[in-house]
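Below is just one:
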Amino acid sequence: MLTEEEANALISFDQAHIWHPYSSTPAPMDPRLIDRAAGAYIITHCGTPLIDAMSSWWAVAHGHNHPKLVAAAHEQISKMSHVMFGGLTHQPAVQLARVLLDLVPAHFSKVFFVDSGSVAVEVAMKMALQYQRGIGHGERCRFVTWRGGYHGDTLAPMSVCDPDGGMHSLWAGILPQHSFAPIPPPRGVDQSVIQRYLSEFEALIDPSHAAVIIEPIVQGAGGMRFHDLELLHSIRAICDRHGLLLIVDEIATGFGRTGKLFASEDISADIMCVGKALTGGFMSLAATLTTETVAQAIQKPTGGGALMHGPTFMANPLGCAVASAALEIVRQGEWRQQVAMIEQLLVQGLQPLQDHIGVRDVRVLGAIGVVEMEHPVDMSAATAAAIAEGVWLRPFGRLIYCMPPFICTPDEIARICRGVIAAVKAALA
């Protein structure tokens, strides 16, 4: 264990030299120094355990240092940690593709492995553009989406994130200009509201559009909003009427987070992006999946003849081996009962906040609990209050939310709820 002097020296160096996500340097508040992690917990340098109620940004679905993932990593690293994927292949990539295609909806048949979720979206957008060229519609070069979305921080994904209310408004006038419908109506609204929204959405589409890209059921970092499955079915029909592809970004929602294996599993999307929990949060790996129809159009001379992307660490053997082990855990299916239990307990634990002064809304879906405040949250005060309850949260904007690891016990979910309540009270102090 580090001495306090050693820990302070590390934090001081970090603040002097290292950027953290969406932050200045030095950051407005010192980062907490984590020494190790196990199960649902991250442990600070001084030995304090904190429930990782964020699943480390929604990725560590099965807990930290899961023994099956650790064993898979040890076995693979003793053979080969990496080899280029250009002109070569290896068993971990083939095995992962087999397992992944067995889990996703049956119409998907092609897998493109990438390093991160944002790059998976980059590839999805390239697929859509090359597909449209392949079928003779090179004029279709723009995308349709809705406001409130978030798809990553590289250039193309930024262009389909919320252009005004999101994290990327700084790049207005630089990013390509796409078409944005309003934020989708919330889950449970009247049928008349949904129909008006769909009419407005469809009215945006013109001959310049190649595809629709959305986060199904849950908008993540753009606002943690939930919408009805009916919207997805209707948007699928809109795409069909206009010759557009439908891209679903399942990076946050895939592999059980919403209570379904995939939030979009019932709508036959043309392209799907997965990441985060693909490796159980063990390491960075993502994938973009598509259909034989899309692949064949891309491989026409007019479509480019090949998919024009190739990351250096594409299909990294170590990542693929761990991902196969993580997906085997998913395939065993225990997450279904785990997520149902978490949803029930989050509803019980957080719903009393619904009538709290300063709280705009409380919503729960699967292993996702969200408290939306009336005003922006004091992150420092809210975080400190949650830590005092033994819980790690990372609020943003007006949101105090949690996405617990599926392995959490009822007592741990109850503690997470106490942490959220403490953070809400601190935000209002």
Notes: The first strand starts at residue 34 and ends at 38.
